[in-house]
Every structure is written in structure tokens, then in C-alpha cells.
Amino acid sequence: MALSDLQEKISILSGAAKFDASCATSGSDGYKGAGGKKFGTSLPSGVCHSWTEDGRCVSLLKVLFSNVCKYDCAYCVNRSSAEIKRSAFTVKELVELTSEFYRRNYIEGLFLSSGIFADPDIVMEKLIETAKTLRTEAGYGGYIHLKIIPGTGEKMIREAGLWADRLSANIELPTEKSLLCLAPQKSGKTILGAMNDFHGLKSEFEESRRTPKFLSQGKSASPFFAPAGQSTQLIVGATEEDDRQIINLSSSLYRKFLLRRVYYSAFIHPGSYVQKESRTDPRLPEGIGPPLVREHRLYQADWLLRFYHFSAGEILSEEQPFLDAHIDPKTAWALKNLDFFPIEVNRADYETLLRIPGIGAKTARRIIESRRSRTLSLDNLRRMGAILKRARYFLTAGGAYIEKPDDPARIRRLLSDTDGAGLQLPLFDF
Ligand code: SF4
Asked: Where are the domains of the chain?
């Protein structure tokens, strides 16, 4: 194939993949610095970043096998009714491309999804064949993330997990009703079924590695199954669900299927990228999409679920179904539960320390470690990484408050970290 043809394929099929957020840094416009200057934009398609089983950040070639799709999901640039250029790789092309990029150190892995151009099992077979050929014939040892094509069977998921590090089935929308409205060919039951199949297979493989037969035969006797687990993507703001429904759903997915990550993707109107007339689809909200601050707050709430041991019910309630756009969810919780504070840092256990705004997991661990040999002062906390601007109202060190939280409304104003346009608070350690 002529180089220019291949370049065009890469351009079409990486552009078509960039809206899938389930391996992070996708579809984002990047940070706009002072004066509108940009750095680190992830908008150009092709390479994205993800995290491996051991926490390393890797750059991935992110492409679709094909952007031909029989389905007509209203929120998707690749839907069957969209007037876009269509293309598809062959397995050979993708294997060569990935191996070549990998050898040249352009990428450390592959993220491969596809439009549903045929029966789901046939599409899945192509993704599996690509991964298997990379592993068995091209000697490729890099990271592989494969999409589970909606409707594919357990047999295919079993095979895919033998060659990929991670698999993901996108749940896309929070309720069956919304799926029926915007993606009528998909079904929540089928997507959750795929997650359940993955979970069952993962347990089965792990169990088999613990059997006496395996232990006596050595490591190669039982293969690993998708060691980096499974993830999913939820589109936010395309339908009417509130943050409470979204966080409740994520919490239940983490519990039931031990998902590694739920990725939240602020809805971007497909008409913003493809064709103006598609904006007239009455099923879609007007405008480009919800503010990115909503996506950011959902990630922070998700972090509270996964690492700070909050329950979904503590973060949002029937009376308050949306996350506060102006204040992070941990500070919002603390201000609503002032009777839980102050926390004495020289006595509190790890779980309790994590409840203090401005103290993240790393600082909490440092506190536990260093107070074994001394009594901690406020100055010690600052040096350990506590953000005292936030923590000052919620802790004591040796009995000393920095400032009593007498006026919650004033504290809320002072700790407000966004005017709705810019975000100053780190995403995770807060
Ligand atoms: S199945 Fe739906 S979301 Fe996936 S590529 Fe096709 S139209 Fe897009």
C-alpha cells in the first residue's frame, strides 16, 4: 500500500478513536494557559496515555480497526448516519504499524477499538487476531488494551484476555432508558453481561493459578488473564441523569465487577466535529456539551470512592444530587459534617486522616509513619505535604487549631477553587 494511503488510514482511524475516554487523555482540549496559550494538548489524535497494572504511565497508539459501524448511536462521530470518510485496517497493517512504532519508541502500547462493521463476534475476532499476532509472531511485549465489542460472547472475551493487558466494555450512558433513546441498538444488560463475564473469567484464571497443580508446574502452566483488569467509559451530560445516579452506578460497578477505572467523558456534541446539521438531532442537548468542571468533579468523587473509602451516599444525596461546581467533594462533605472535626493528627487512624481536606493518601501515610517517633506540629504537617490552606479548619496538632471553622459560608468562599472556567485544585490528592 502507498505510504500516503496508509497515512490517510491512520489519520481517519486515530481521529475516530479519540473520543473514547476509557484509556484517558482522550477528546480533551488540553490546558489553556494564560493568554489562551496551550501546552500539552491531547486533542490531536493518535497517541494517548494510560496506566499499567504497576502504575506506570504509558503512551498508546489509539486507533479503531474500522470506523464503519452498523449502529447509529446519536452521540458518536462514527454512527452509521454520519457523513464521514470510512476506512479500515487489515490485521497485517495494524501489526506492522504497532510493531514499527514500538520499535522506534514512539509508543509503549496499543489501544484498539472498532466500529461494529459486522456481527460483534466477527469484529472482536479481528481485534483478537491483531493482539495475538502481535504477541505470537511479531514478538511484541508492549501494553495492549482491547475494547470488548458490545454483543460479543464469553468465548471471545476469554480469548481476548489471553493477549491483552486490559479489556473494556463501555457502559456509555447511565440508564437503560438513556441507552434506548441515544443508542437503541445497544443494551445495558448486554454491556453489564460482558463485564460480568470478564469478572468471572478473571476469578477463574486467578483461582487456577492458586491450585496445587499449577503451583507444582510452575508459572507458565496457567496464563495470565488481562492483568490490568477492566475499565469502562460513561458519557456525562448527553442525557438527563444527575451526578448521584452516575456515582451510584460507578460505586456498584467497582463493587460488583472490581473495575479498575470508570472514565467520565464530558459529552461533546458530534456536530462540533463533523457536520453542523447533526446538531438538529432533537435527542441531544443543545450546545457543545457540559462544562468540563462537571467531569473533573466526577473524577474527584470517584477518587473518594476508590481511595478515600467514602460511600456514594456520603458524597451525594437525594436533596443534593449534583456535585458542587465550586468546591471539591471532600471539602463539601467536611463542611456539611463539621461535628466530625477537628481531627487530632497525632491520634487519628489512617481512614480518619483521609477525611481531612488538604490531606491526601501520601500525606496520611507520612503522618502515621513519622508520629511513631515524635509528636507532630503544624509545621511538620506542612513539610509532609498537607495543604494547610484547606486543612487548617479541620485538624489540630497537639491540640492546637489553626483556625476554628466558625463561619462555614466564609470557609466555603475561601476554599472555592473554580469560577466555573478554570480549575486550580489537583485532580486527585486533595
Ligand atoms: S457502536 Fe455506537 S459508539 Fe460504537 S462506533 Fe458504532 S455508533 Fe459509535
From this structure: 3-16+44-290, 329-415
Ligand 1: residues whose CB is within 6 Å? 69, 71, 73, 76, 78-79, 115-116, 183
What is the band of 268 on the pLDDT scale with cuts at 50, 70, 90? confident
Helices (H), ranges, 211-320: 212-217, 243-257, 292-307, 312-315
User: Residue 420 above 60 pLDDT?
Assistant: no
Per-residue pLDDT tens digits for 171-185: 999 999 999 999 999
Task: State in Å: Cα 71 to ligand 1 middle.
Answer: 6
Report the separation in Å between the CA atom of 183 and the middle of ligand 1, taken as the mean of its atom positions.
8
Which one-letter DSSP state was computed for residue 398? Answer: T
CA distances to 306, 315, 328 from 411, in Å: 27, 19, 13
CA of 193 to the centre of ligand 1 (A): 18
Beta strands in 253-354 (DSSP E): 261-266, 343-344
Calculate how far, in angstroms, residue 96's C-alpha sits from the geometric centre of ligand 1. 26
How is residue 345 annotated by DSSP?
Answer: T
Share of the chain above pLDDT 70, in %: 83
**Which DSSP symbol is given to 66?**
B
Can you say whether the dihedral through the CA atoms of 111, 112, 114, 120 is positive or negative? negative
Which superfamily does CATH assign the domain made up of 3-16+44-290 to?
Aldolase class I (3.20.20.70)
